[in-house]
């Protein structure tokens, strides 16, 4: 009887030992597999890290713009930031060998954001003016256009810029069009978005608006050729627009100028212009 008990116990011990060895064997196999997987993952991670490092080494040009000023900078039906200035910024960045990042900012605070260093440059059909040149540097111009005076279709009181004296003009408070309107004696109705400025004109909240001829043409096109407004006067002054930067960054200005000159020479600016306006806006 004792022999049977001892035999049973020995069998159990041996079975347990064999099971334990089998378990160790599987663990070893799993460990080897995990080590191989980890080595492969490490290699992949190393490759990915190298790619990220290469990308990180590429300089970045940060550009401030409204994102609400069609056709220069706006969002399409899918919510993607697009427009003439977006295409121009990307083309400039490509010529410079830079990545481009956009920072959307309301127009009335865009210069303050540039001053604060929120971005490197502003591209938003920024007109070059003597006042702005006192504080900021500008690139080579690549947009030429002229201001126009817009009124409701049934308005017969305003037929010239001189007629806006004492009238209400819907203008962005920091725009050059605001300065033009004030120079003719207009009372300003602050409105930083062109579409809303047009609503002010149509509702009677404002008597007129002075703005860029291309912006008005695009707005009217988007309205299906709507005849609810009209241009009654065109300025003889041609406005030039360019990239605006803080003073003191001469190296970046030079790089941007070189890129713009090349884009004008190879026809890229003309191509982008015709895409959005149907004509070349890079020539005065």
Automatic annotation (TrEMBL):
One of its GO terms (cellular component) is cell envelope. It is found in: Cell envelope. The keyword Cytoplasm does not apply. Residues 1-28 form the signal peptide. Residues 60-280 form the Solute-binding protein family 3/N-terminal domain. CDD domains: PBP2_Ngo0372_TcyA (cd13711). Residues 25-54 have a biased composition (Low complexity). Its main location: other. It comes from the Bacteria. Keywords: Signal. Residues 25-58 are annotated as: Disordered. Pfam families: SBP_bac_3 (PF00497). SUPFAM superfamilies: Periplasmic binding protein-like II (SSF53850). Belongs to the bacterial solute-binding protein 3 family. This is Amino acid ABC transporter substrate-binding protein. It comes from Roseburia intestinalis.
């Amino acid at each position: 009887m004792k022999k049977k008990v001892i035999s049973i116990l020995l069998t159990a011990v041996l079975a347990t030992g064999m099971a334990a060895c089998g378990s160790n064997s599987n663990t070893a196999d799993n460990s080897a597999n995990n080590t191989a997987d980890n080595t492969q993952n490490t290699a992949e991670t190393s490759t990915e890290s190298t790619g990220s490092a290469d990308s990180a080494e590429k300089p970045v040009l940060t550009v401030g713009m409204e994102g609400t000023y069609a056709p220069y900078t706006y969002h399409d039906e899918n919510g993607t930031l697009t427009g003439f200035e977006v295409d121009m910024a990307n083309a400039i960045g490509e010529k410079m060998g830079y990545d481009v990042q956009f920072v959307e900012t309301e127009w009335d605070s865009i210069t303050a954001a540039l001053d604060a260093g929120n971005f490197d440059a502003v591209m938003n059909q920024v007109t070059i003016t003597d006042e702005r040149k006192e504080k900021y540097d500008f690139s080579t111009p690549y947009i030429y256009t002229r201001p126009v005076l817009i009124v409701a279709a049934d308005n017969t009181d305003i037929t010239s810029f001189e007629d806006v004296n004492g009238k209400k003009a819907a203008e962005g408070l920091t725009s050059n069009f605001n300065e033009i309107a004030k120079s003719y004696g207009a009372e300003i109705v602050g409105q930083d978005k062109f579409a809303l400025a047009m609503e002010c004109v149509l509702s009677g909240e404002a008597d007129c608006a002075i703005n860029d001829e291309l912006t008005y043409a695009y707005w009217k096109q988007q309205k299906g050729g709507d005849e609810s407004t009209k241009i009654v006067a065109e300025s003889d002054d041609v406005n030039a627009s360019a990239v605006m930067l803080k003073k003191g960054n001469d190296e970046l200005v030079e790089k941007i100028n070189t890129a713009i000159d090349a884009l004008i020479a190879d026809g890229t600016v003309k191509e982008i212009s015709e895409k959005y306006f149907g004509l070349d806006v890079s020539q005065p």
